[in-house]
Amino acid sequence: MDTAATRQTMADRNLIVRLAFGGMASQTLRAAVRLGVFDLLGDGRRPAADVAADAGAEHQPMTRLLRALAGLGLLEEHEPDAFCVTPAGALLGSGSPDSLTAFVRMFTDPAIVRAWDSLDSSVRTGGIAFDSVFGTDFFSHLGRHPELSADFNAAMSQAAEETAAVLPHAYDFGRFTWVTDVGGGDGTVLAGVLAAHPALTGVLHDTADGLARAPKTLERHGVTDRCALAAGDFFRSVPGGSDLYLMKSVLHDWSDDQAVTILGHCREVLPPGGHVLIVEPVLPEVVGTDAAAHAADGGITYLSDLNMLVNLGGKERTRRDFEEVCRRAGLSVVSVTPLVEAAPFYLIEAVAG
């Protein structure tokens, strides 16, 4: 009998099955990107046999891959064995300005995925599984693998594009004269801020490897003459001279003690009236208290939290967590504001405490 209870049980079972198949879906995505499927399909409709030939693949296995991608909503099969890209799939073409190909390559790479096999161990011990699996920490591993490091930097840039478009108009940058982007990578976020605020001057601070792509990013946005590059280690110091210190998706990579160190170095050089602006997700104190945010996020922030546990030793934080690490660094949080158009990010603003 088709009762409400039966339908709910079926829905619950389907949820578990979808979650169990999640790893297979991500590897399907990885294979498609590595084979160049979305570029080969382009803007039109093509037979699977043609895509297979151009990819150097067998026809029937390619058809099966393309049908799986259609089942995931990334392609459409309008007639047997002929496919085209959906709007979501178009984000995986390498020529798209909004491309997420590097993001997919990075987050499906064994460097990210393999340590997840030891998630249960990390939960038991609190240890960083990546270090045990690879014999070194994540960023040292990147340093030894230039191609992976390039993918990581490109992925971070792609992930920052949405925030870079929204942030300049969501915060009053006009109050400041100099902004230092601490751990700002290739400068995607800072370039967006500077382009929207012509009176503002910037400093981009990261490791030499992290800054490798920055000159092209700054040139593309037309802000090269208003942004200095400062290579360094934020665990040792950050450049002085700015009245705003910006960090986007930096602190969650690190433990509380390490976050306090980074924030403390910002506090050391913060002038009177200066501010620190942290752009990161903010977890609610109890899961489910912000149903709309969780629906939009799809639980990804909590998976990101586990990824930090497994691979980096960092964490996603609640407001109380941010207040505590800021307090320990001599800072006081004065506002926490959702960045609505770039969910799940928030603006955490702090001043000298």
Ordered list of secondary-structure elements with their pairings:
Layout: H1 4-20, H2 22-35, H3 37-41, E1 46-47, H4 48-55, H5 59-71, E2 75-79, E3 82-85, H6 87-90, H7 101-107, H8 110-113, H9 119-125, H10 129-134, H11 138-144, H12 146-166, E4 178-182, H13 188-196, E5 201-206, H14 214-221, E6 227-231, E7 244-248, H15 256-269, E8 275-283, H16 291-297, H17 300-312, E9 317-318, H18 319-328, E10 331-338, E11 345-352
Helix pairs in contact: 4-5, 7-12, 12-13, 13-14
Distance between the termini: 64 Å
* Principal-axes shape call: globular
Determine Rg (CA atoms, Å). 22 Å
Order of helices and strands: HHHEHHEEHHHHHHHEHEHEEHEHHEHEE
Largest sheet at a glance? 8 strands, mixed
Q: How many DSSP E strands?
A: 11
What structural category characterises the helix and strand content?
alpha/beta
Query: Mean pLDDT across all residues, rounded?
Result: 93
Overall helicity: 40-55%
Strand content: 15-25%
Spans of at least 5 consecutive residues with low confidence: none
Give me the number of helical elements: 18
